[in-house]
Design brief:
The structure holds three protein chains of three kinds. By secondary structure, chain A is mainly alpha-helical. Helix content of chain A is 69%, strand content 1%. Chain A is globular and about 70 Å long. In chain B, the strands form three sheets. A seven-stranded mixed beta sheet of chain B has the order 3-2-1-4-8-9-12, with helices on both faces. In chain B, strands 5-6-7 form a three-stranded antiparallel beta sheet. Classes of the chains: A mainly alpha, B alpha/beta, C alpha/beta. Chain C: It is found in: Endoplasmic reticulum membrane.
C-alpha cells in the first residue's frame, strides 16, 4: 500500500517540477480557463509590486486577493523569489496528502455509518454493501487523480492561487471528518476568507459535528441546536477575526469592495469557463443588478434543499456543495473542478447506479480539447466569435451538472435500494424505479 | 421669448410703418372668396422644419445628401435657418474619403454643392440620438439649450418633419446604435399636439419600409408620406463614380426635382407633390396617409409646408388709421380740416395724415397671384 | 434529459444502437460523403453576396488606368536587373533601386534586413540574408491608425516560379497614381519582399514585434497603424488573360469572403473572368459537367487547405488577423482577349478604393467556407451537417462498443451471482428490457478501463518521440552522408516501424508470461474511436478540409479493424491500416499530386517520384513548422499518429 502511494506522490511532484522547467507554465498562466482575475499570478505580481511600492493594491482594478493572502504571498515571494513554483508544487503535495487522509477517514466513516444502519437494510441489499476491501484503492485513486489530473497539473503550472483555496477546503473536509470543531471552523473560515463561497460549507460541517457529538436518540433535542450554533458561531467569529485583522492591517475596509465586491458584482467579464461572462456581456445594463442577484443566489440556494434531503449524509452534502460552487461561482476555473474530481472516488460504491458517466466523461474531454481551439479561432484568428467559445463553456457546465445530478441520483438510488432491496416489487411483480 | 410674442411685435412694427398687413381674419368679397379659399384655410402663421439624417458612415453619403438637399429647398422657399432644426449624424464633407473635400453633392457631375456656405447644422454627429430628436419635437430640452437648437413652435405653426436613414418594419435606426420605433414617434407627435406645438405637420420619410413609420400616428392634422411600403426597400438613385458613393435616394431625388419647380408664390399643391415619384421612377411604392389631415391635400399649397410665405400685401394706397396721436408726429403738416380741429382741442386724438410711400421696388411683379386688394383697417 | 433519465427509452436507444450500428454506420458514411460532395452542385450552395455595406465595390472611376506608367517601370526594372546580373552572381532584390523609386514618389521608404536559417541540421545552420523594401503612403487627411498593404514578392531570374517583375512594376505605377489623390483614409504600405514567404514572415514579425527563432527580422524603421487587409500581386506578364485568385492561408485559414468577393467583382467589372484554382467556371453550372467542374474546384481548394501550407504570400497575413488574397496572373496562348496594365491597375485600384471605404475590419461575411465556383460558396452551416453525418459512425460505433462491453461486464457479474444460486434465472429472462439485474443502470467497465490506459500512454509517448525525433534523424543522417530529406524520410519510416512493433512485442511478452489479460479490444476500440472523434471535431473547426479528408480515409478502415484469428483478414487489415498511416497518407498524397498536377502516368516513374516528393513534403512540413508555425507536422505527429497507433495496437489484442 505504501509503495504505490509513495511512487504516485513522487511521480506527481516530479511531473510538476519537470513541467515547471519548461515554458508551459508561462503560456498556461495566460489561459483564461486556468487563471481567473481572482487567481491569476500575473495580477498577484502586480499587486505585490504595488504593495512593495507602498501603494494600496486595492486602489486599482487589478488585484483581488485578500490582505492576508497578499502578505502571505509577499512573504513567500520574497523568500523564494523565482523559485516560488516550489511553493506551489509543495502546496499541491500537501493537498494530495490531505486528500489521502480524507479518503481514509471518509471510508472509515462510511463503514461506521453502514454498521449503524445495517438493521434497517433489506436482506438482499447484501451485494451493494460497502466492504472494507472495496475501499482498498480509494486512497490511491484520490491521490492519483489529484496529482495526475491535467486540470490540477495545469493549475499548479499556471501558479494559480486557487490551489491555496483548494487546500483550505480540503482541510475543512478533513477536520470535519475528524470531528474537530475548532480546526474545521478555522479552515472553513480561511477558505471562505479567500474565496467567499465556501461559507456555505458551514452547514454540512455543523450537521456532521452535531451528529458526532449528540447521541442518536436525542437528535431533535436542544443539544443538537446547541452544537450547530456552536459551529456556526465558531466559524463566523473566526471569519470575522480574519476580516477584522485584515482591516487592522490595511487600515480601511477598501479591500472588501475589490475582493468580495469583485466576486459578487462580477465587473470583469473576461471570458472564462463559467456562465457569468457571456450572460452579463449580453445583458442590458438596467437588468444587470437583478440578474446578478439571481445568479449569486443561485449558487447558494441549493444549500437549503440539499441540506434537508441529505441531512443524514453530511459528507456527501459537503461534496455536493463543493461541486455546485465549482459550477456556479462567478469566476470558476479548472482548479475548482480538479478538487471535486479528485474526491469522486469516495463514492465508488454508488457508481454502479450512475448512468451518464460515459456521456459526462466524453463531454469533459471534448470541452477540454475544444475550448482552446475555439478560443484561438475567436481571439487570435478572428474567424470565429464569442458564441463558439460560449457553446463550449455551456457544454462544460452541462457536463458538470450532469455529473452532479447523476451522482446525487446514484447516491439516493443506492440508499433506496439498501432499504427496499435490489428487486423492488409492486404487487408481487418486478418493478422498475423511475426517477421522474 | 415665445414664437407668438415675437410675431406680435412683428405685427405692431408693421402697423406703425403704415403698411397694411392682412392676415388670417381678412374679409374679402364674393368672387375673390373662391380663389382665396386655400389661402385662408391654411390657418398657420409660421413654418418650421425638422430635417433629420439618422445614419453615419461614408457609405451613407446619400442620406446626408438627401437631407441637405431638402434643407436647401426649404431655405430657398423662405424658411429661415432659425426655424430649421437640421440634424446630421455624420460629417461627409470632411470625411477623409471625400475626393472633393468640404462639399456634398446631390447629383452626378457635381452640379450643386448642397453643403454651401451657409449651412447651419443644429445637431451633428453623436448628438443625433433618438432622445434628442424626441426632446426637440416635444420641447423638453434642458434650459441651457440655445434657441437655435429648439423647435419654438406654437399652435399656429406648420411643421415639416423629414427623416432619412436605414429603417425596418416599425423602426428607424439612429447611428447603428439605437432606433426609434413608430409608436414612439406617434406618441411624440401626440405630445406635440397636446402641448399645442403645431398646427399641421407634414411628415416625410425616405427609408426602407418607410410606410411602417407613419402607420401608428393618431394625432390630428398630420399629413404623412413615405418612400416605400412595408416589405419594400427604398433604393438609391445613382452613384457618382468620382466620389465612389451613391449620391441620393430615389424618392428624395424626385421630390427635389418637383421642389425645384416651386417658387414662393407657386400655386402647386401638396396633392401634386405627393404624386411626385410614381412607382416606375421610385421602384418603391410611395405611400401617403391623409386620414388625419383635415384639408384636402389637393387644395393645400406646397408652400404651406415647404415655404414660409407670409400672406403679405403691399399697397400704395392711403390708409386711414384711427387712434394714433398726432403728437408722435410733431413735424407733420396738416391740411385744413384737420388743422382746425387740432386748434380746437390739441389733446384730441386725430386721424392720421395722408401719406404715401414711394414704391421701393416693383413688388407687384413678384407677387402676382396673391392679390388681396383690400384696405381693411386695424 | 428525459431521454437520458428514463430507463425505458434509454434501453430502447441502446438496443437500436446495438442492433443496427453497423448498418447505421455504413448509411451515415455513404450519405455524409455524397452529401458533402453534392454541396459543390449549384442548387445545393448559395450565391456569393456582399455582406459589408461599406465596401461599395466598383463604384469609382479608375484614376490609374495607363499602360505606359507601369510599362516604363517594368522596362527600368528589367534594365536594373540586367545590370545587377552583370555585376553580381547571386541575384538579390534591387533594394536601392526600389527604395529610390518609392522615395522619389514621396513615400516614407525603408529597407528591412533579415536573416534566416533552417531548423536544426538542415543546411548546417547556415544563415541567409534578405531584404524587404517598403514605402508608406500616409493618409493625407487622417492619422496613421490603419493601413492596407499592397505587396509583391521579388523573384530572381533563376527562380522556378513565375517572375513577378510585372507585378512590382504595376505596384510602383499604382504608388505613383495613389500618391496624387487625397481620398485615402488609411495608410497604404507598398511592400516588396524577398525569399517568398520568409520575407513576408520577417516583415510581419517585425511589424507585430513577434519573435521567431529561425527568421531573425531586423527592426522596422517606420511603421503605420494596424493592418486591415492586404493584397498580394504575382503578375508575370504585361498582358494577361485573367487573374487567378489564391486565398488558402496558413493552417487552412481563409480570408473573409467579402474580400474574395471584392476581388472577384472588380475583375469582372473589367471584363475579366477571374478563376479559382485556375479553374474557370463552367458556362452551365447546372449540367453534369458543371457539377464536375465545381467539384474539382472545391476539392482542389480543400486540398490546398488540407496540408496547411499557404498558397502564396497572402497566407501569412491571416495569422495576424489581416485578411489577404493573392492576384496571380494567368496568361494563355492564343487567348481571345488580353488585359493590359491599364485594366490590371483598374482592378487593383478598385480593390483599394473599396478597402479604403472600410470602417472596421472585415467581420461581416464568412470566414469558414468552401468555394466551388467564383460566384458560389458553401458556408460552414452548409458543410458542417454532412461532415457531422460523415463522422457520426465513429461515435455510433464507440457507443455501441461501450454498451456491449458494459453489458458483457454486467452479464458476467450476473452469471457469477446466478451460479451462487441467489438469483432465479427465470426472473432475469422474464423482462426483456431487463436482461440483467442492472441493465437500466449499465454498469461501468471501470476496472477494465485501466487496462486500456497503458496502451494510450504508450501511443502518446510514441507520438511525442515522433515529434522530437526528426532533429536527431537529420543529425544522424548527416553522419552517414545522407541529405536531410532522406534522413527525415528514413527516420519517419523507422519511427513507424518501431511504434508498430511495440504492441506486437508487448503482446508476445504478455503471452509468454501467460497473462491472458491485456486490454479488452472492444474497450480499446471504443476509446480509440472516441479519441479520434474528438480529434476530428477539433480539427474540423480549424481546418475543415483536413478533417474531411482524414474522415473520408480513416472512418471505413477504423470501423472495420478488429482482432481476428483469420490470417487473411488480418493481413488485409494490416495493409489497410498501413495505407492510412500518416506516412502512407503522405505517400498517397504525393502519388495523387503527381498524377493530378504533374500528369505522370507511368507507374515506374510515378512511384519513385512520389517517394521523392514524399521526402520533400516531410522536410517542408518540418521547415514550415519551425519557420511559419504551420501546425501540420505537430498535428500529425502529436495527435494523428498516436491515434493511428491505438488502432494498430488493436490488431494485437486478444480476439473474443
Amino acid at each position: 500500500m505504501a509503495y504505490p502511494m509513495l511512487i504516485t506522490v513522487s511521480a506527481g511532484i516530479i511531473l510538476r517540477l519537470w513541467l515547471h522547467a519548461s515554458t508551459l507554465g508561462e503560456w498556461l498562466s495566460d489561459k483564461n480557463e486556468v487563471s481567473t482575475p481572482l487567481t491569476s499570478w500575473k495580477r498577484v505580481t502586480e499587486g505585490l509590486a504595488l504593495y512593495k511600492a507602498g501603494v494600496s493594491p486595492y486602489s486599482g482594478d487589478i488585484f483581488h486577493e485578500m490582505p492576508l493572502m497578499l502578505r502571505f504571498l509577499h512573504y513567500i515571494n520574497s523568500l523564494w523569489g523565482p523559485a516560488i513554483y516550489i511553493v506551489f508544487v509543495f502546496t499541491d503535495f500537501v493537498t494530495a496528502i490531505v486528500l489521502e487522509r480524507i479518503a481514509k477517514h471518509c471510508g472509515r466513516h462510511l463503514l461506521v455509518e453502514q454498521k449503524k444502519n445495517v438493521k434497517t437494510f433489506s436482506t438482499d441489499a447484501q451485494k451493494i454493501l460497502v466492504k472494507s476491501s472495496d475501499l482498498r484503492y480509494t486512497r490511491l485513486q484520490v491521490v492519483a487523480i489529484y496529482l495526475f489530473n491535467p486540470y490540477s497539473v495545469i493549475t499548479c503550472l499556471a501558479k494559480s492561487t486557487a490551489i491555496f483555496n483548494n487546500l483550505a477546503i480540503a482541510l475543512t473536509i478533513l477536520y470535519t471528518l475528524k470531528g474537530k470543531r475548532s480546526k474545521a471552523c478555522l479552515s472553513l473560515a480561511v477558505a471562505s476568507y479567500i474565496s467567499m463561497y465556501p461559507i456555505m460549507l458551514v452547514v454540512p460541517t455543523a450537521i456532521f459535528i452535531a451528529r458526532q457529538e449528540v447521541p442518536e436518540k436525542t437528535w431533535t433535542s436542544s443539544l443538537t441546536y446547541g452544537s450547530i450554533m456552536q459551529t456556526l458561531l465558531c466559524s463566523c467569529s473566526a471569519l470575522s477575526f480574519l476580516l477584522y485583522y485584515s482591516y487592522c492591517l490595511e487600515g480601511s475596509w477598501d479591500f472588501i469592495s475589490s475582493t468580495y465586491g469583485f466576486i459578487l458584482s462580477v465587473p470583469d467579464l473576461t471570458p472564462n469557463i463559467g456562465i457569468f461572462w457571456y450572460f452579463f456581456t449580453e445583458m442590458f445594463e438596467h437588468f444587470r443588478l437583478f440578474f446578478l442577484c439571481v445568479f449569486q443566489i443561485n449558487v447558494f440556494i441549493y444549500t437549503v434543499p440539499l441540506s434537508i434531503k441529505l441531512r443524514d449524509h453530511p459528507v456527501f452534502l459537503m461534496y455536493t456543495l463543493i461541486t455546485i460552487m465549482a459550477i456556479f461561482k462567478s469566476y470558476p476555473s479548472y482548479a475548482d473542478a480538479s478538487l471535486y474530481l479528485a474526491l469522486l472516488p469516495l463514492w465508488t460504491h454508488t457508481f454502479s447506479h450512475m448512468r451518464n458517466s460515459f456521456i459526462v466523461a466524453c463531454m469533459f474531454i471534448a470541452c477540454s480539447v475544444l475550448a482552446p481551439v475555439q478560443w484561438y479561432l475567436w481571439i487570435y484568428a478572428g474567424s470565429a466569435n464569442a458564441n463558439f467559445y460560449f457553446a463550449i463553456t455551456l457544454v462544460y457546465a452541462t457536463a458538470q451538472i450532469l455529473l452532479l445530478t447523476d451522482l446525487i441520483f446514484a447516491f439516493l438510488r443506492r440508499e433506496y435500494d439498501l432499504v427496499h432491496g435490489l428487486k423492488p416489487q409492486v404487487n408481487g411483480q418486478p418493478a422498475q424505479v423511475v426517477l421522474s | 421669448m415665445s414664437g407668438s410674442t415675437k410675431m406680435k411685435l412683428f405685427l405692431s412694427y408693421l402697423r406703425f410703418s403704415f403698411i397694411c398687413v392682412i392676415l388670417l381674419n381678412c374679409y374679402a368679397s364674393g368672387q375673390e372668396m373662391e380663389t382665396m379659399e386655400q389661402f385662408f384655410k391654411s390657418g398657420h402663421t409660421n413654418n418650421w422644419a425638422v430635417l433629420v439624417d439618422t445614419s453615419r458612415f461614408w457609405f451613407n453619403y446619400r442620406h446626408v445628401a438627401n437631407v441637405l438637399s431638402i434643407y436647401r429647398s426649404v431655405k430657398r422657399l423662405g424658411i429661415p435657418d432659425s426655424q430649421i432644426i437640421l440634424m446630421i449624424a455624420d460629417d461627409m464633407a470632411c470625411n477623409p474619403r471625400n475626393p472633393r473635400p468640404a462639399t456634398v453633392f446631390n447629383n452626378a457631375h457635381q452640379h450643386i454643392n448642397v453643403y454651401g456656405d451657409d449651412v447651419e447644422v443644429d445637431y451633428r454627429g453623436y448628438e443625433v440620438t433618438v432622445e434628442n430628436f424626441i426632446r426637440v419635437l416635444t420641447g423638453r430640452l434642458p434650459p441651457s439649450t440655445p434657441r437655435s437648437k429648439r423647435l419654438l413652435t406654437d399652435d399656429r405653426s406648420n411643421v415639416l418633419v423629414y427623416m432619412t436613414g436605414h429603417g425596418g418594419d416599425g423602426f428607424l435606426k439612429f447611428q447603428d446604435a439605437e432606433e426609434i420605433s413608430n409608436v414612439e414617434l406617434a406618441d411624440a407627435f401626440q405630445q406635440m399636439w397636446q402641448k399645442r406645438r403645431y398646427h399641421e405637420v407634414f411628415y416625410m420619410i425616405d427609408t426602407c419600409q418607410a410606410e411602417s413609420m407613419h402607420q401608428k400616428f393618431y394625432s390630428p392634422n398630420i399629413l404623412a408620406v413615405a418612400s416605400s411600403r412595408i416589405g419594400e426597400d427604398s433604393l438609391s438613385h445613382h452613384n457618382d463614380n468620382t466620389l465612389g458613393v451613391y449620391i441620393i435616394d430615389r424618392y428624395t431625388y424626385y421630390a427635389l426635382e418637383f421642389l425645384e419647380g416651386v417658387s414662393p408664390d407657386s400655386k402647386k399643391t401638396m396633392g401634386q407633390f405627393l404624386q411626385a415619384c410614381p412607382r416606375r421612377q421610385c421602384i418603391s411604392t410611395v405611400t401617403v396617409r391623409t386620414d388625419l389631415f383635415q384639408r384636402d391635400p389637393d387644395k393645400v399649397l406646397i408652400t404651406d409646408f415647404f415655404g414660409s410665405v407670409r400672406k403679405v400685401e403691399l399697397s400704395n394706397n392711403y390708409i386711414q388709421l384711427d387712434n394714433i396721436p398726432l403728437t408722435i408726429f410733431p413735424s407733420q403738416t396738416c391740411d385744413g380740416d384737420a388743422c382746425e380741429k387740432d386748434k380746437g382741442n390739441e389733446k384730441r386724438i386725430q386721424r392720421g395724415p395722408r401719406m404715401q410711400y414711394a414704391d421701393p421696388f416693383p413688388v407687384d411683379s413678384y407677387i402676382k397671384g396673391v392679390s388681396v386688394s383690400d384696405n381693411s383697417r386695424h | 434529459m428525459g431521454l437520458l433519465s428514463n430507463p425505458k427509452t434509454r434501453q430502447k436507444l441502446m438496443n437500436v444502437i446495438l442492433r443496427y450500428n453497423n448498418k447505421l454506420c455504413f448509411v451515415c458514411y455513404v450519405v455524409g460523403l455524397c452529401w458533402f460532395l453534392a454541396l459543390a452542385y449549384t442548387p445545393f450552395n448559395a450565391k456569393t453576396y456582399f455582406s459589408e455595406n461599406a465596401l461599395l465595390p466598383g463604384l469609382v472611376k479608375s484614376n490609374a488606368h495607363s499602360d505606359s506608367g507601369a510599362g516604363n517601370y517594368l522596362r527600368n526594372l528589367k534594365d536594373e536587373l540586367r545590370l545587377s546580373k552583370e555585376t553580381r552572381k547571386q541575384q538579390s532584390i534591387p533594394s536601392s533601386w526600389l527604395e529610390a523609386q518609392l522615395r522619389q514618389l514621396g513615400l516614407d521608404t525603408y529597407v528591412q534586413n533579415f536573416t534566416f536559417k533552417y531548423p536544426v541540421g538542415i543546411l548546417k545552420g547556415h544563415a541567409y540574408q534578405g531584404q524587404n523594401v517598403y514605402g508608406i503612403l500616409r493618409a493625407p487627411k487622417t492619422a496613421s491608425t490603419e493601413a492596407i498593404v499592397l505587396t509583391a514578392p521579388f523573384r530572381p531570374g533563376g527562380s522556378p516560379r513565375d517572375s513577378t517583375s510585372a507585378g512590382i512594376a504595376l505596384m510602383l505605377h499604382l504608388a505613383k497614381s495613389f500618391r496624387r489623390h487625397t481620398y485615402w483614409a488609411k495608410d497604404i504600405i507598398f511592400l516588396i519582399t524577398e525569399h517568398e514567404e520568409i520575407g513576408i514572415q520577417a516583415w510581419l514579425n517585425a511589424y507585430h514585434h513577434s519573435h521567431n527563432d529561425y527568421v531573425l527580422a531586423g527592426e522596422l524603421q517606420g511603421r503605420s497603424g494596424s493592418l486591415q487587409a492586404a493584397l498580394c500581386l504575382e503578375i508575370a506578364h504585361e498582358e494577361i488573360t485573367r487573374f487567378n485568385i489564391k486565398l488558402e492561408g496558413l493552417n487552412g485559414q481563409l480570408p473573409n469572403l467579402d474580400l474574395v468577393n471584392t476581388a472577384m467583382q472588380l475583375c469582372r467589372d473589367q471584363g475579366m473572368q477571374p478563376t479559382l484554382q485556375k479553374q474557370t467556371d463552367y458556362w452551365d453550372p447546372k449540367s453534369y459537367e458543371g457539377f464536375e467542374r465545381a467539384l474539382k474546384t472545391m476539392l482542389l481548394m480543400m486540398w490546398n487547405m488540407a496540408h496547411g501550407t499557404p498558397t502564396g504570400n497572402h497566407g501569412l497575413f491571416h495569422q495576424y488577423n489581416v485578411e489577404a488574397v493573392t492576384l496571380q496572373s494567368v496568361r494563355i496562348k492564343n487567348s481571345r482577349r488580353y488585359f493590359s496594365f491599364s485594366q490590371m491597375s483598374s482592378v487593383v485600384e478598385g480593390i483599394f478604393r473599396s478597402l479604403n471605404n472600410l470602417l472596421e475590419r472585415f467581420h461581416q461575411s464568412f470566414f469558414f467556407y468552401l468555394l466551388p465556383a467564383t460566384n458560389r460558396y458553401v458556408s460552414i452551416g452548409l458543410y458542417m451537417p454532412p461532415f457531422a453525418v460523415l463522422a457520426l459512425p465513429v461515435l455510433f460505433k464507440a457507443v455501441a462498443l461501450w454498451i456491449s462491453v458494459s453489458l458483457d461486464a454486467s452479464s458476467q457479474a450476473s452469471e457469477e451471482t446466478e451460479t451462487e444460486g441467489k438469483e432465479k434465472p427465470s426472473q432475469a429472462e422474464g423482462d426483456p428490457t431487463e436482461q440483467t439485474p442492472h441493465a437500466e443502470d449499465a454498469q461501468e467497465p471501470g476496472v477494465t478501463l485501466m487496462s486500456v490506459f497503458p496502451t494510450c500512454v504508450l501511443c502518446l509517448g510514441f507520438g511525442l518521440s515522433a515529434h522530437q525525433a526528426p532533429y536527431y534523424f537529420i543529425e544522424a543522417a548527416r553522419g552517414f552522408g545522407m541529405t536531410p530529406s532522406e534522413g527525415l524520410a528514413l527516420g519517419a519510416v523507422s519511427v513507424h516501424l518501431v511504434a508498430m512493433a511495440a504492441p506486437w512485442l508487448l503482446q508476445r511478452k504478455a503471452t509468454e508470461e501467460g497473462d491472458s489479460g491485456g486490454p479488452n479490444w472492444q474497450l480499446l476500440k471504443s476509446v480509440s474511436l472516441l479519441a479520434f472523434g474528438i480529434v476530428l471535431a477539433a480539427i474540423s473547426s480549424l481546418n475543415i478540409a483536413m478533417s474531411f479528408f482524414l474522415a473520408v480515409v480513416w472512418v471505413p478502415v477504423i470501423l472495420l479493424v478488429r482482432p481476428t484469428h483469420s490470417r487473411v483478414v488480418n493481413l488485409v487489415q494490416f495493409l489497410l491500416l498501413l495505407l492510412v498511416s500518416p506516412l502512407g497518407l503522405v505517400y498517397i498524397g504525393s502519388v495523387v499530386n503527381e498524377v493530378v498536377v504533374e500528369k505522370v502516368t507511368d507507374a515506374a516513374v510515378l512511384l519513385p517520384r512520389a517517394w521523392e516528393s514524399t521526402q520533400a513534403a516531410l522536410l517542408m512540413s518540418l521547415i514550415n513548422n519551425n519557420l511559419f508555425a504551420n501546425w501540420t507536422f505537430s498535428l500529425v505527429s502529436l495527435v494523428i499518429f498516436p491515434t493511428w497507433l491505438m488502432f494498430w495496437s488493436l490488431l494485437w489484442t486478444k480476439p473474443l
